Amino acid sequence: MQRLPTFLTLLSLLAVVACGPSNAPTTAAGKPDAKPVTDDARSAAPASRTLAAVRARGSLRCGINPGLAGFAFPDNRGAWRGFDVDFCRALAAAVLGDASKVTFVPLSNAARITALKAGQIDVLARNTTWTFSRDAGQGVDFAGISYYDGQGFMAPRSLNLQSATELGGARICVQSGTTSELNLRDFFASRGLSYTPVLAASEDKARSLYEQDACDALSADISALASTRSVLSNPGGQALLSDVISKEPMGPVVRQGDPGWTDIVRWTLNALILGEELGVTAKTAEQQRREATRPEIRRLLGAEPGFGAMLGLSDDWAFNAIRQVGNYGEIFERNVGGRSALKLERGQNALWNADPSGLLYAPPMR
């Protein structure tokens, strides 16, 4: 009977040895701390083939629209400008430290996905709608949503139309090989209305047909319609109808199979959105990097080290993007918003916490 306590003590010691030493923090009373283990452990990013190629080349190859005012268009000096162009510049600043190190590759609708998959570009920043078939069936990934859009209609004000449902029997110009062509078909079929599609191979061709009165109305994404209207000879004579017949979430596209690069593109977009949310602008970024005490601003601008390594970048990657190009709000306003010829309202592209609120939301930087 005297051996039982000794035997039990031996079993207890063996259990401790088998489980190994405990590294759990303890309270002052010697009890294990109940706080859960956090996931803050930071590690270097997995190697990205695309990142390596961009660095070796010394420039980012970005696929853009051949000419869509407000989004991607060459100015009078031949320099590319626009909302999508600025995203490419921000990505170059994040990856290479210099927003000017971009080669812009104009691509048609038909060529855009093919060029990306073939490695002719590193990222596609041309207005492209995120759909199931593109994401799941074409070997590409959408890194995020940079612009929330929807398909609408433009018609001469002289027709005095109140709704697209009044277009039964009309000739509608629409770009072929796009989601717009399919959405148009669904819209009229679901309402039992007939129409005659007038197909165009490009935005320029659709605009030309509309100007020549080859169709009664033009259907495209609302942003594209505003862009088209801004360059017509009589923009004031054109009305954008109130109907929105589809969801058109657009964003940068990358090849599948390179998750490290997808993360870089995704978080560059998120950084621009967070920059606006946190009040970090091109003019204030440098001072805020030195003086900010708010932890998320310090993480965003690289004042708190270690976050760049998780993307395979330097800690100042987001700082460079915002300081050289601006935050999301700055990019929007100068290209498509109130400071541009398009003068589009923020609408769904307002921040989630704006008044009125929109859909724009980025995960926290932590």
TrEMBL record:
Signal peptide annotation: 1-24
Q: Where is the Solute-binding protein family 3/N-terminal domain?
A: 59-288
Please verify whether the record's keywords include Transport. Answer: yes
Q: Which PROSITE patterns match?
A: PROKAR_LIPOPROTEIN (PS51257), SBP_BACTERIAL_3 (PS01039)
Q: Tell me the superkingdom of the source.
A: Bacteria
Task: Keyword check for Transport, yes or no.
Answer: yes
Q: Which UniProt keywords apply?
A: Signal, Transport
Against SUPFAM superfamilies, the record matches this protein to: Periplasmic binding protein-like II
In the record, the note on similarity to other proteins reads: Belongs to the bacterial solute-binding protein 3 family.
What PANTHER family would the database entry show? AMINO ACID ABC TRANSPORTER PERMEASE, AMINO-ACID ABC TRANSPORTER-BINDING PROTEIN YHDW-RELATED
Q: What is this protein called?
A: General L-amino acid transport system substrate-binding protein
Instruction: Tell me what organism the protein belongs to.
Output: Caulobacter ginsengisoli
